[in-house]
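REVIEWER CHECKLIST
Item 1: Sequence provided? yes
Item 2: Single chain? yes
Item 3: Sequence as submitted:
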Amino acid sequence: MRIKKAVIPAAGLGTRVLPATKAMPKEMIPIVDKPAIQYIVEEAVRSGITDILIVISRGKSIIEDHFDRMPELEKHLEAGGKDDFLKDVVDIAQMANISFVRQQQQLGLGHAILQAKNFVGNEPFAVLYGDDVIIGDDPCIGQLCRAYETYGKGTVCIKEVSKEDIKKYSSLKVNHLKDNIYEISDMVEKPKTDDEIYSYFSILGRCILPPEIFNVLENTPFGAGNELQLTDAMKTLAQHDGFIGVDFTGTRYDMGNKLGILKASVEVALSRDDLKDEFLEYLSSLDLLKV
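Item 4: Structure as written out by the authors:
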């Protein structure tokens, strides 16, 4: 079954990058000349997804404005003959059918996903975390969509993380199937002890979920941080039906992390033909080895 719907949870407060996020959502922090969330939406669109729900919270209406038309700006650009800029701003509003819902209380990622129940209906759907920008030639969520079409099970993108980082994420019990594909039979969110660590594979930023996840979430107790954890609900499904893990290709940038934001800006700038030469010249002028 083709995946046509995606949910982007973007209601978090962004406390790790304060004070930048005091008045501006972290999802709107730019990577060169586009906000982070636009990269995420473009990834979904490149993967064949046509309907996107963005879960926001109070104070994040600027995200809605970004994906809306702006006639005054369009008229100004058209009058000035700035056709390239005009196309860019119009295309943003026409990439997909984008809608919004508010999460009135920030009670965890699982709670955010529950806000999408009516939007999703009875079909599998993609989840692209609003904190994570993943850039590569093959869109990450597209890799998961193909795996779902092959195996028909909930699917997550995975990477091995360090021993120090595993307790910040989740630990997965995996069995290698082939190439970069793994079967997942169990998982634990933010393991507290070494005994709880199944492997150093962790879920990072993307998943395909069956509609059964909503019933499981509604019957899942609050977990780590006194929040409704999506991983706890996925654990229930994994133990019953199994999940598929895709060791994805592409570079992940954590946009809820100051260093992640810096890395994204530098590496994207260096990948662009219109910027890389001048930017490299500038970096060379800094004599970075002396810093």
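Item 5: Key structural point noted by reviewer: The first strand starts at residue 5 and ends at 9.
Item 6: Recommendation: ____
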